[in-house]
């Protein structure tokens, strides 16, 4: 499972010219579900997303508070294209969970997110729809999360690649 988490001042989703979801300050999560993902990866990703410290504390200290600490909003968008593998220059999505299976899995993800946080603060797009996602990135801060590969040792060191304020976290 892969997630791209962006700290936002606001974000919204439009389908067919109609805005269906919107949030103020918080995080926008683009979620890509793979063929191999299980409940274990789902729970890992929910925990990481909700506890990711991308906000300042009251004294202005960076990277101190999570979306839950600040009681901010979360906008989730299912995005199978995160499971892309390039074949030459052509994207191939054979690693993405098929739509029929992925919809239930994604709904389970949303359910767990709402159960672990405050349901009224968790919004989402429309699974499988052609959407316009409007994101006002704050910072900019963009972090990529990837659940550990099935069977991977959980003691692997955390890896973090920093480019400006854009971070890539792997196996964390």
Describe the 3D structure.
The chain has 172 residues and is α/β, with parallel strands linked by helices. Helices cover 20% and strands 40% of the residues. The protein has helices spanning 39-51, 67-70, 99-116, and strands spanning 2-15, 18-23, 26-32, 73-78, 85-87, 90-92, 122-124, 131-146, 159-163, 166-170. Strands 1, 2, 3, 4, 7, 8, 9 and 10 form an eight-stranded mixed beta sheet that branches. The protein has a two-stranded antiparallel ribbon with strand order 5-6. It is globular and about 45 Å long. The protein starts with a strand and ends with a strand.
Topology of this structure?
Elements: E1 2-15, E2 18-23, E3 26-32, H1 39-51, H2 67-70, E4 73-78, E5 85-87, E6 90-92, H3 99-116, E7 122-124, E8 131-146, E9 159-163, E10 166-170
Parallel strand pairs: 3-4, 4-7, 8-10
Antiparallel strand pairs: 1-2, 1-3, 1-8, 5-6, 9-10
Helix pairs in contact: 1-3
Key phrases:
alpha/beta, 172 residues, eight-stranded mixed beta sheet, 20% helix, single chain, 3 helices, globular, two-stranded antiparallel sheet
Short précis:
With 172 residues, the protein is of the alpha/beta class. Helix content is 20%, strand content 40%. About 7% of the residues have low confidence.
